[in-house]
Design a protein that fits this description.
Elements: E1 12-22, E2 27-38, E3 44-45, H1 48-64, E4 68-72
Parallel strand pairs: 2-4
Antiparallel strand pairs: 1-2, 2-3
């Protein structure tokens, strides 16, 4: 197991989380995002591929949404 990069005490465990972005004119919420979470401090870490997918989801949702957009990580954004 890998130790937490933030607190150095806990171990990272695979789980899912909700990712939220506030773009001032729109809030985008992505549920069930895969991550690693520290067992000690709760800090969440995303792999490079997950971050790239989140960026793609946010960019697409931004063009579709007016105020609030909620989607699931595993679903394709229209």
């Amino acid at each position: 197991m890998t130790n937490c990069f933030f607190c150095k005490k806990g171990t990272l465990e695979e789980t899912v989380t909700t990712y939220m972005v506030d773009l001032k004119d729109c809030i985008i919420i992505v549920r069930n995002v895969p991550c690693e979470e520290c067992s000690q401090c709760g800090e969440k870490f995303f792999s490079d591929s997950v971050m790239q997918r989140l960026d793609d989801i946010v960019q697409k949702a931004r063009s579709l949404a007016s105020e609030v957009f909620v989607t699931d990580y595993s679903k394709k954004v229209a």
